[in-house]
């Protein structure tokens, strides 16, 4: 499969993508646990059907020591017993923040309060930014049909 646009060759895309790479670096330096960032990025990407982001975040999480069991169970996190309460709160916020159009009321006060119980202000900000940026990147990649499967861990800041 060929991408509809070569985002790395296009000068306009290049100008914009450098800012997204800077966002990725800032996210890596945030106080939100790296495991939570990767689980959230993976779940948002699963919901949006973004193969290139699923590829990237699965490989990044694996390189960071995430277990195959947890990665395989992200899609069914509600029934899985391998996630902490904080991770479950983050995944719930990620799902509601991604499925805004499907969830008549957007993000519920309950999901927000639950996340706020587990994360301090800086971590909660980083969580919201992770969810938002992943939704943006997913849409960019899905619209332009970016191919998946060749990502190597560490290739880009995420």
Topology of helices and strands:
Blueprint: H1 11-28, H2 34-48, H3 51-63, H4 68-73, H5 85-98, H6 109-118, H7 121-143
Helix pairs in contact: 2-3, 2-5, 2-7, 5-6, 5-7
Protein name: Carboxymuconolactone decarboxylase family protein
Domain Carboxymuconolactone decarboxylase-like: 20-95
Organism: Streptomyces stramineus
Distance between the termini: 24 Å
Q: H/E element string?
A: HHHHHHH
The radius of gyration computed from the alpha-carbon positions, rounded to a whole number of angstroms, is 15 Å
* Average pLDDT over all residues: 94
**Second rung of CATH, namely the architecture:** Up-down Bundle
List the uncertain runs: none
Give the proportion of residues in helices: 55-70%
Tell me the number of structural domains: 1
Structural class: mainly alpha
Specify the overall morphology: globular
Into which percentage range does the β-strand content fall?
under 5%
CATH topology: AhpD-like
Number of helices: 7
Instruction: Spell out the CATH superfamily.
Output: AhpD-like
In this structure, how is the largest beta sheet organized?
none
In total, the number of strands is 0
Report the CATH C-level class: Mainly Alpha
Question: Can you tag this structure with a few keywords?
Answer:
single chain; mainly alpha; AhpD-like
What does this molecule look like?
- The chain is mostly helical and 158 residues long.
- The protein has one domain: AhpD-like (Up-down Bundle), CATH 1.20.1290.10.
- Helices cover 63% and strands 0% of the residues.
- The longest helix has 23 residues.
- It comes from Streptomyces stramineus.
- InterPro entries: AhpD-like, AhpD_core, CMD-like.
